[in-house]
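Submission sheet (multi-component)
Chains listed below:
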Amino acid sequence: MARSTKGSGPELRRTVTPWGSFAWGYSDVGADIFVGLGLVLAWAAGASNVAFLFAGIVYVCIGLAYTELAATYPVAGGGQYFVMRGLGDIFGFIAGWAVLLDFTIDVTLFAWSSVDYSSQLLPALVNSIHPWLHFTVVLALVVGLCILNVIGVRESTAFNGFVSALDVISETCILCFGFLFAFRPQLLIHAMHFNWPSPYDLMLGTSLAIVSFVGLESISQAAQETQRPASIIPRTSVSLILTILIFALAYSNLALGLAPWHPIVDAAGHAQQFWQIFPHNADNQGKAVALLAAQVPYYGAFAALYVPVLGAVLLLISSNSGVFGSSRIAYAMSSSNLLPSIFQRVHGKYRTPTISIVFFSTIAIVELIFAAAPALHPSVGSLYAHFFHGENGLEFLADLYAFGAATSYSFVFLGLIALRLSDPLSPRKFKIPLNLPLHVRGERVEFPVIAVIGFIGIFSILMFTLRTHALGRIFGPSWLLLGLILYLVYRAYRRLPLLRSQQRNWRAAQVDILRRAGELELMDEYVANLKASDARRAAPRT
Amino acid sequence: MIAPSSEVHVTVAGALAAIFIAGTVGSTLWWMLHPPSSYVQLIAERAESDLERMVGSLIVVFSPEIDSAHMMALAAKLARGERSELLALYVIEVPYTLPPDAEMAIEEREALDALGAAETIANSNNVTIRTETLKTRSTKQAVLDVAKREKADLIILGSFREGKYSGAPLGRTIEEIAADAKCDVLIGVEGKHGTLLIDESAQASSQPI
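Outcome: structure written.
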């Protein structure tokens, strides 16, 4: 009698199409520029485009690394899985824990920015005027998203795809009309020449620019549900990298060289350039794209009405991706014995990881309180001004976001290098360019030079973050330390190796991953590579 | 400092940047949405295009020997999905002992029932259907002639009726049509639905331990 070759357990259906995969990433990364642009213009001033360029180069390296890894290992764990497989359990935990920090920040930061964008049409929500109302609405959004995720209601993939498509078209229109009607090269040169920031501010601006490129993790997380991931993910990742890079560079250059449609003047009545409305103005920093869109001749009249709404929706989707992303990562880490099994527990009625969702949403609320505190109470404000250079709420959240991203990305680069050396037999349908051929333990391997360049870049951004972000350098490492203690206590309790890794059969796991991914040709190639490698090793003995 | 101007005028650099942005974003997304097909997808695509070629025009054949009522329901669903043309053909074979236009009241009454049922099935599936009754000396030749006239892509036949065994497992007429047709032929032999597992389990339980 014929037997089914499939396992008895249910498998995730592969329903994510190329556009779905792109939209999954875009709803996360695409929203970043809405937050990052104002912050970078505020600090990097005339060098904002340079800050974005530097962060963009690092981001391209990160994107290429994620693309290769997600196409080679299409599993749901994302960065922490790659690092765990390449460097071992404890490093996998650190990378995953840093990503978890990013996801919790993601919830608060994007809910905060969503309210900021809404304030463009609803002035009652302006943070500097009504801080308590702003705080209450952000809190309500975070709690609301938490409840929706607990009861299992999510925006559909189709809605995600629709909003992403609308946003790509919208941003392309803003930039095209902006460059066509309002770009003055002499203003750009003037801003760069006369408003070049100090090295400290440039470092700060560059570390904030990386905020505009965080979220590639989402594509690799959806790898397990993507159709033909090894073929589709390289395309969607490369397209996402290019689109976001073009948008970020174009926005920063346009902002510096924009001749505003409605003249901008300072308190003394002097004409100002567009980018000058951002330094020392947290309200403007939170809604930079909406302000820029409104200054584009002709198109701005229309854009002023819909961009705040579109931005608010996209940011809310991104905030929601933080809620379910954190529970998803925690679930994957728990499955690999990196976190307690309580994070895998599914609610009996709603079939959602309730404990995980509530736990990380609570952390997001704690972060919100820290971010909003200086605006809510003057004494806390003066405390922040004294100890933390007076960072505002948005900057505090962006600090931690940059810290978490830079930490996890640093480990992903190291994981990539380690996997190239330790697992050369896995077929790589996409490979980062610029590789050095080497021989390690009898196998031909290719050493990724780009990964080294990327690591240096992201590590320098991590150093910039620690150097320039007063709050980030305290809270970021504290988060990692807290996680490490939790990890060691859990591993000791479960009598698992503390610093070493658990024994795993990666060969069998890889065959299973490729079979489940539907990449049957790659599975055949991998099995053939294994046989050839075993034969080579056995040959000298016979 | 240089005062920003509120006047609108297009610069070469700005226009080039706008074209570059629109072109790059558009072409990148187009490239992303058109990945090459895998081997498995190519097989599936070929089968899909074969199906389109196969089901443009359908003929469901009835006769006193061929019971196609259950295949009519399948044909109607297929025709609805693929927007095919559907013809229900009832063939009455006139024996050589009778003149070609001999009246065959019982068979003609059966034809009305069969084609009426076919129309009902088609209507319930929201499909347009044509019906036709033919008297002929050879069912096979009549079916092949109609198929040629209609430029049919698929002839659908049911199973031969019990008690009319003609020396061929599927019925001689059905096998001859399948052998000589210049288009695809779908033959639906009715089984005893739901008995497969019962039979197997009964066999298994009857085996000695």
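Remark: The mean pLDDT of chain B is 83.
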